[in-house]
Q: What sequence folds into this?
């Protein structure tokens, strides 16, 4: 199919606008590290954590204050070295304090007597600052 | 195609890319944890570049893409070839049989067999084939074992050891398709697929099956049609810079593929049949191997689409798409099989994987049929041939996603391996914090977009051949499909993880 010069230039224009529009999504991206609290209060039921997606920026000292409604074993996959698996008892508030020195998304798991295999109750995200 | 139509289509595709802006999803689990998702602006930039490049290739650059089916090759020095061949053979034997032995002897809690099989062979080798070339013709423990048996038999005076059954031509590569499906099921769904003993059993079973197949149908027929890794790595190796040239005129003369004895490169039959002296490795440009694929058929289409679906499913399985499929499929299955039985979950997960594969296959076949209809009847060949050739152009896109999604896992496995060989019970996977997350992001997007551009260029060549005069129109369905798949891949790596309350972690943590 033969293109005239004008048609070709118009198409090239459209393409460049398209690319520019895509790249214009160049806003946002990094989270506001100051706005993310480092002392996070969480409620733990048998299959869910509320809120289920606690997040901090890398390098911060974090304290997770967990109020469990069930007995079990709680741990954060990938942060097992900093926080070993912790026994939780219903009604007893526990505090987990550590430094979030690795970025990524880390599933939070709860193992109970009814569910020894464990169930994912939430995701702990450590953003890049 | 008139400019105004082109404008509308371009705008629509960009709009789709922007509107499918991701909400939380997951990148691949590294030993139980997940990378940070690719940021929104990088996702949009990648999608935009992919779309723009597609249109540049199919409209503006039309006349500058040369025919490349006679690409340059560079022979490798003989000494290096011989040493590498021997080294790879020994490595293959140690790797495969070593994993089986460790699995049975050391037992349950060793992660070593899983690292050797699922990370090393299943994901690592395809990436190696794409980047450096297909190692399997020398690495294959089955070839080495069978050749050893033959050598021993010859010592005892036997001329050949195979039973001599004829491999039915109609079967084509369907056995490899079945084995691929089984392997994906074992990787993605089988509970305890990473447990040492399970891995050892799977590998031992596959060894027996392959050797039996080679014994009954002959080495050549079995390897080129039914051995999973020969077929899989053969396809990915087409992207890589290494080709095997068969140098014996007698060999090519008897070859069913009808290859030219003066230029027999990566012929599936000759390279399976060639003895050491009749075959030589040569270097060639990346992607060039995809341009001279001979006679692909429906079994190749299904194989490639299944490979694509399986590679993508691992990422998809942590996205809202997976939750949607689960909610659709769980109620009817649990009504029949019971709400909490393990069988129910297995059936539902198998159905989810099947649904994704069927969706991919239906989309592709519809596009192939549309392309066939738009092509010149004198130039296009049969639907099976055309579908097969277009399926091959999807391989770079699959390779791009493979690298984007699994490269960090392979690096982690490679770092873990030396410590595991010393202490097979070491269960803590090394963390990769020394790699800046930005590097991982840019690499993932670059791999996906790069694979896409290669696929578009190859598809356009085919369109020019099959529909001379209106290649842009005839190639359009395929371009749209590729853009759709690329945007899906980018979306998967760009969305943070979400957790469905109460879901078993095994379903998430592959």
A:
């Amino acid at each position: 199919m033969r293109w005239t010069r004008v048609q070709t230039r118009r198409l090239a224009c459209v393409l460049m606008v398209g690319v520019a529009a895509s790249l214009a999504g160049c806003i946002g991206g990094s989270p506001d590290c100051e706005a993310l609290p480092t002392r996070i209060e969480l409620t733990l039921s048998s299959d869910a954590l509320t809120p289920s997606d606690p997040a901090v920026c890398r390098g911060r000292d974090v304290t997770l204050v967990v109020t469990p409604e069930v007995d079990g074993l709680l741990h954060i996959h990938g942060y097992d070295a900093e926080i070993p698996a912790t026994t939780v008892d219903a009604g007893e508030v526990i505090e987990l304090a550590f430094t979030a020195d690795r970025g990524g998304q880390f599933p939070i798991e709860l193992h109970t007597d009814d569910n020894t295999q464990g169930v994912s109750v939430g995701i702990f995200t450590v953003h890049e600052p | 195609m008139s400019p105004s139509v082109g404008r509308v289509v371009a705008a629509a595709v960009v709009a789709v890319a922007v509107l499918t802006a991701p909400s939380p999803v997951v990148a691949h689990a590294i030993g139980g944890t997940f990378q940070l998702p690719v940021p929104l602006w990088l996702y949009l930039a990648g999608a935009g570049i992919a779309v723009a490049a597609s249109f540049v290739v199919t409209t503006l650059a039309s006349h500058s893409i040369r025919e490349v089916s006679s690409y340059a090759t560079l022979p490798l020095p003989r000494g290096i070839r011989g040493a590498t061949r021997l080294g790879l053979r020994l490595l293959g034997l140690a790797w495969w049989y070593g994993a089986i032995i460790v699995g049975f002897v050391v037992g349950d809690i060793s992660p070593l067999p899983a690292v050797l099989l699922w990370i090393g062979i299943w994901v690592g080798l395809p990436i190696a084939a794409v980047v450096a070339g297909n190692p399997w013709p020398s690495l294959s423990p089955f070839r080495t074992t069978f050749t050893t048996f033959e050598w021993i038999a010859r010592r005892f005076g036997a001329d050949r050891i195979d039973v001599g059954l004829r491999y039915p031509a109609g079967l084509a590569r369907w056995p490899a398709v079945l084995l691929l499906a089984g392997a994906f099921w074992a990787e993605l769904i089988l509970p305890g697929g990473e447990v040492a003993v399970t891995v050892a059993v799977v590998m031992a079973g596959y060894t027996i099956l392959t050797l039996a197949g080679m014994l009954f149908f002959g080495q050549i027929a079995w390897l080129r049609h039914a051995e999973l890794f020969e077929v899989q790595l053969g396809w990915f190796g087409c992207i890589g810079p290494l080709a095997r040239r068969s140098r014996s005129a007698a060999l090519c003369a008897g070859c069913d593929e009808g290859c030219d004895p003066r230029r027999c490169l990566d012929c599936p039959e000759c390279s399976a049949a060639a003895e050491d002296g009749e075959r030589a490795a040569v270097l060639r440009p990346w992607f060039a191997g995809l341009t001279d694929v001979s006679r692909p058929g429906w079994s190749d289409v299904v194989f490639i689409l299944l490979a694509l679906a399986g590679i993508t499913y691992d990422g998809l399985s942590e996205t809202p798409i997976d939750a949607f499929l689960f909610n659709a499929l769980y109620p009817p299955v649990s009504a029949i099989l019971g709400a909490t039985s393990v069988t129910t979950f297995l059936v539902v997960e198998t159905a989810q994987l099947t649904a994704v594969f069927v969706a991919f296959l239906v989309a592709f076949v519809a596009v192939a049929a549309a392309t066939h209809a738009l092509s010149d009847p004198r130039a296009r060949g049969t639907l099976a041939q055309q579908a097969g050739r277009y399926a091959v152009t999807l391989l770079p896109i699959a390779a791009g996603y493979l690298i984007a999604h699994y490269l960090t896992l392979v690096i982690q496995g490679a770092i873990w391996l030396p410590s595991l060989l010393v202490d097979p019970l070491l269960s803590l996977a090394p963390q990769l914090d020394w790699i800046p997350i930005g590097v991982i992001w840019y690499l993932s997007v670059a791999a996906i977009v790069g694979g896409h551009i290669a696929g578009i260029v190859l598809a356009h060549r085919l369109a020019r051949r099959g529909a001379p005069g209106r290649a842009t129109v005839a190639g359009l369905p395929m371009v749209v499909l590729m853009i759709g798949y690329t945007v899906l891949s980018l979306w998967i790596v760009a969305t943070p993880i979400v957790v469905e309350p109460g879901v078993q972690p095994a379903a998430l943590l592959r």
Notes: The longest helix of chain B spans residues 342-374. Chain B touches chain A through 54 residues (CB under 8 Å). Chain B has 20 helices and five strands.
